[in-house]
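Can't paste images in this forum, so I'm doing it all in text. The chain is below; anyone willing to post the predicted C-alpha cells underneath?
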Amino acid sequence: MRRSGRNAPRLKPAAGVLGAWVLIAPAAAAGQAGGAAGFERGLELYENHCALCHQSSGEGNPPTFPALNGNDRLADSVGIVRNIYRGAGTMPPFPDLGVEDISALANYVRDAWENDFPEVTADDVAAALEGLDDAGGTVSVWDGVFTEVQANRGQAAYTGACAICHGRRLNGAPDDPDMRSTPPLARAAFLREWDGRSLAALFEYTRATMPEDNPNSLTDPEYVDVIAYMLSVGGMPAGPDALPTDPQRLSRIAIGPQP
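Text version of the structure:
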C-alpha cells in the first residue's frame, strides 16, 4: 500500500516491477480526496469490508472475486458508488455506509495500487444514490434473526457439506487428523473474524467459496440454513422469522459480540 497526503510524498508501485516503489511529487498527493486522512479511512474501510475477497493487494481471486488493481471498470464512478451501496454479483451491499465513507472507499480503490482515477466527492456520492431505496435500520445477529427449525435444517446441511473440513464442533478442527485446520465457524473466534461485517457478506462469501472443492453447490436456502446453524451453535437466540436469502435484507443484520 502506498501512503498519500497533502504534505507527504506519494508512493506508488512502479508498473511491472514487483516490490519496487517510485516517488510521486507531493503536489500530486494534494489532489487526493481528504488527503492522508481520507486515504487512511478508505484503507480502513477496504480492509474491513473488501480485502477478504479482493485481497489487500487488490489482485482478487478471479473469476469469483475480480481484481481491482488495474480494473478499468473503476472508471465508472456512479457504478462503483451504487455497487458499494446495494451490492452486485457476489459483492454484498453496504447500505449502512454514509456518503463520506462511500466516497473514501471509492477513492481508495480508484487511487490505490496502480490505479489513477479522478476523485469522487461526497456530493458525487449523494447524487449517484439519489432515488435508491433505503432498506431501513440494522439489527444484530443477537436479535433472533433465525428460527430453530431453520437451524435444525442447517445442522443437517452442515453435517453433509461442511463438517468434514470445519469439524463437527464448528471449531475448524477437521475430523480427519491428516487434514489441515480451517477457520472456525462459531463462537468467539468466528465473531472476532467477522465482527463488523454483515450476514450478506458471510452469505456471499460462503456461497462463492464453499464447499472448497465444489463452491455454490448448495441452494441459497441451504446456505442460509447453515448460517442459522452457525449462529445457533454460537449461542445466538432463535426468533420467529427465518433468515432470508435476499442479500439486501441480510446486509441489515450485523455480526458482532453480544451487546
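The chain has two domains: 10-129, 139-254. Strands lie at 10-13, 21-24, 139-140, 253-254.
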